[in-house]
Write a structure and sequence with these properties.
The complex is a heterodimer of chains A (368) and B (387).
Chain A (H helix, E strand, L loop, with lengths): L15 E5 L19 H5 L32 H10 L5 E4 L12 H20 L5 E6 L5 H11 L5 E7 L12 H9 L4 E4 L20 H7 L1 H13 L2 H4 L5 E4 L6 H15 L10 H8 E4 L9 H10 L2 H4 E2 L21 H16 L10
Parallel strand pairs in A: 1-2, 2-3, 3-4, 4-5, 5-6, 6-7, 7-8
Chain B lengths: L6 E5 L61 H12 L3 E4 L12 H20 L5 E6 L5 H11 L5 E7 L12 H9 L4 E4 L20 H7 L1 H13 L2 H4 L5 E4 L6 H15 L10 H8 E4 L8 H10 L2 H4 E2 L12 H4 L8 H13 L24 H5 L5
Parallel strand pairs in B: 1-2, 2-3, 3-4, 4-5, 5-6, 6-7, 7-8
Helix pairs in contact in B: 3-4
The chains are: A alpha/beta (368), B alpha/beta (387).
Chain lengths: 368, 387
């Protein structure tokens, strides 16, 4: 059943929110019905996705979005529809909430099972009952073959719009090790998204190339480094030569660093092509045709026009999609966010680019 | 000279034969340098592959000149500085992985030896060269002592550490280094290049890069981590006069950091109440960047970023001699707005380093070590001495 607000045609699409954090109400125990009994002792033992980080602030929710009944800001789909979807007239929200940590769980087998359970739970509880939500397909990159199987299992489900992993890794995402995941993703026409937040925990590399940050403020600021490094890796390993239709989405890692990656790499490539003969184009060209960036938390320059200039540099009319990060503290309100941008560019970022990224499945009903 | 037309803040002078450095090292550490190639430093595996875009003036192979490009000060002066009109060149060497070697005492001893060798063989005999006080940050107290030892020498214009580091440089642990810099009015230079070596974390936050191209593209991220750390740990509040020079990282990465950090600080400043100024304000007041290598961006884009970071006052010309694979550094600065050219080529450096940049390199306090040993006495010099 379509929501009243759900657009049936691209022309009626106004806002696609590419980062909505639904919460796993009831914690890991909620996944029990979705996991084989052999994994129940793991759930009972409280084996988490990634372990917890020491950085004390965590990612707290917007205070006035917290529901009294359950103390959660995104524990129930109906609540998120009321507080986010209807309030801001969002047509589609891409759910990213319950996944991420599984990417850097030390136990790859458990992470694989956990991913499948999260996916079934998300489809069952959030997506199939509500056409305004779409699911991100969690996979465990610790076992790329198993991750590819998970992509094949659910990749054609109308409720699924992308494959999803944490941006924190022990091995950068461009490397061949991961290519089975990308092969499966392009087979189903799915973009691959990576999301910040797991930096510094689990089996990931240290959260900066200079070691561990001290505070949440520092850690949160540094989180864009994994995004830059993943982007550099994807561009230099020839991943986009191998998979010419692969799209990669960088979620919640900032945008204004992309020109540095593009043009530092172009200089390096021009000088040292001999080392990366598998590349056929300037690295910056791959970014414009394969990479997408979500807006929140958008950098806030003191001069508004500087943001416009940066957006021009990254080709935002094709590469940038809106996200709110509901319900986290640094939520970007779609009414006020990105106000420096000209209306035509806003239109592309809030709706058209997401439609190009995810395709028609963004508008299809979630139940077949 | 009373004024300078061109100041090159980055000449990578090289040690042709480490036995020349040995006599300047503390006696008990001399035996650790066992070959002309130097101590057995732990290093990463990233090496340039391919011929690159440009080529610095280098000595002809099998010719009468030095066998290596930047090992002979007289040759560098005559083949590079004079023809290109460079009046002052700041020496930065090549030891950017010194701060991530496992043995802090050996690292400190090497730094001391290299500093005295640089003064004796490059700086004091040649007015055109200025030195950087190389220190190893594993042991900040020894690093600070080395800055104190040479900090008032007119031949030295800055302290220098590798940005490859076990921990972000804002940590209180490192503050004695900054205290020493401020005590002597010396900027702190950070130079990338040791990332991923020995004690250092992987050279990216996503894990180990595969290629030199990938590795070098990732390197500005360690500057971002260090600056974010220095701001949030209050370095620029504790040492408000400290200046920092970030070498070889380009310019396009800075706006993202300024704007992201300011935004996060507004949201979370309760966590770091000692940070009373907006991070961007502290960074823009303290940090200089170098021109080699400017990103290969359309000129108009560079000029836009230039304005975002107040490039007129921020950029220092760097020649990166003898490695010009990423392009001729003088051609690179043609991307710089014409109105800023004079500032970038000389004035910014003169302001940053002050009168000592042009002061004569008087003979300073004699190095504690014995004079360099002649080749015939090398073995004797290599023996561990009793103090």
């Amino acid at each position: 059943v379509l929501n009243a607000s759900h657009p049936a045609s691209p022309a009626k699409l106004h806002i696609v929110d590419c980062d909505v954090h639904n919460e796993l109400k009831g914690g890991r125990a909620a996944l029990k019905p979705y996991m084989a009994s052999e994994w129940h002792p793991f759930l009972d033992a409280g084996v988490n996705g990634a372990g917890r980080s020491f950085y004390p602030s965590g990612s707290p929710s917007i205070m006035d979005a917290i529901r009294e009944d359950d103390g959660l800001a995104a524990g129930e789909p109906e609540w998120v529809i009321e507080r986010l979807i209807n309030r801001y007239k969002i047509d589609v929200g891409v759910l990213t909430g319950a996944a991420g940590g599984q990417s850097i769980q030390p136990n790859g087998r458990y992470a694989t099972a956990l991913s499948a359970a999260i996916n079934d739970w998300t489809l069952d509880r959030w997506v199939r009952p509500h056409d305004c939500f779409k699911a991100s397909l969690a996979v465990a990159p610790q076992d790329p073959e198993a991750a590819a199987r998970e992509v094949h299992r659910l990749g054609d489900d109308p409720g699924v719009v992308q494959v999803f992993m944490a941006s924190a890794t022990r091995i950068p995402y461009g490397q061949k090790y991961y290519w089975p995941i990308y092969r499966a993703a392009v087979e189903h026409g799915l973009p691959v998204a990576v999301h910040v937040g797991a930096e510094g925990v689990g089996i990931g590399a240290r959260p900066t190339s200079a070691g561990y940050p001290t505070t949440y403020l520092e850690w949160h600021t540094d989180m864009s480094h994994t995004m830059m490094a993943q982007c550099v890796s994807l561009l230099t390993e020839g991943t986009f030569e191998e998979f010419p239709t692969l799209k990669f989405v960088f979620v919640e890692g900032g945008i204004c660093w992309a020109p540095y990656v593009m043009w530092r790499l172009d200089r390096l490539y021009t000088a040292f092509k001999a080392e990366v003969p598998h590349l056929k184009r300037l690295p910056s060209e791959y970014i414009r045709s394969h990479c997408y960036f979500t807006t929140q938390p958008i950098e806030e320059p003191p001069e508004r026009r500087h943001l416009v200039e940066m957006f021009e540099m990254v080709g935002a009319e094709k590469t940038v999609v809106f996200s709110s990060d509901y319900p986290h503290w640094d939520f970007d309100n779609p009414i006020t966010a990105l106000s420096p941008l000209p209306p035509e560019l806003r239109r592309r970022i809030f709706a058209d680019n997401a439609l190009e990224l995810y395709g028609e499945r963004l508008l299809r009903p979630n139940r077949t | 000279v009373a004024e300078a037309r061109v100041v090159d803040v980055d000449v990578h002078h090289q040690i042709a034969d480490w036995y020349e450095v040995v006599p300047f090292m503390p006696a008990g550490m001399r035996h650790r340098v066992r070959s002309p190639g130097g101590p057995p430093f732990g290093n990463h595996g990233y090496r340039k592959v391919g011929s690159g875009l440009g080529s610095a003036p280098l000595p002809p192979k099998n010719g009468p000149g030095p066998r290596h490009s930047a090992t002979d000060p007289k040759w560098v002066r005559e083949a590079y500085l004079e023809p290109r009109g460079v009046d002052r060149a700041i020496l930065t060497g090549q030891l950017f992985h010194l701060g991530v070697q496992a043995n802090p005492d050996l690292a400190a001893a090497v730094a001391r030896g290299v500093n005295d060798w640089t003064l004796e063989t490059w700086v004091r005999p040649h007015a055109c060269f200025k030195g950087s006080i190389l220190v190893a940050q594993q042991d900040p107290s020894q690093a600070a002592a080395e800055i104190d030892r040479l900090g008032d020498d007119p031949g030295m214009v800055q302290a220098l550490i590798g940005s490859a580091s076990e921990a972000p440089l804002g940590r209180r642990f490192y503050h004695p280094i900054y205290e020493a810099c401020v005590r002597h009015g010396l900027p702190l230079a950070l130079h990338l290049g040791g990332e991923g070596a020995e004690l250092a974390p992987a050279a990216s936050a996503a894990g180990h890069p595969s290629t030199y191209v990938e590795w070098y593209a990732d390197l500005p991220q360690s500057y971002m981590a260090h600056l974010t750390s220095m701001v949030t740990e209050g370095v620029f509040e504790t040492f408000p006069t400290l200046k920092v020079v970030l070498y070889e990282a380009g310019v396009f990465w800075l706006p993202h950091l300024l704007w992201r950090l300011d935004k996060n600080w507004k949201g979370h400043r309760a966590e770091t109440p000692w940070v009373t100024r907006a991070p961007s304000e502290s960074i823009l007041a303290a940090v200089s960047l170098t021109t080699y290598p400017l990103e290969l961006a359309p000129k108009g884009r560079l000029h836009q970023v230039w304005e975002m970071i107040d490039g007129d006052r921020r950029l220092l010309f760097s020649g990166n001699y003898p490695a010009w694979e990423l392009g001729d550094p003088f051609e690179m600065v043609e991307l710089v707005p014409a109105s800023a050219r004079a500032r970038v080529m000389a004035d910014n450096a003169l302001e940053l380093y002050g009168p000592r940049l042009l002061a004569p390199n008087q003979a300073g306090p004699a190095p504690a070590a014995t004079p360099p040993a002649a080749a015939g006495t090398m073995h004797e010099a290599m023996e561990p001495h009793e103090e």
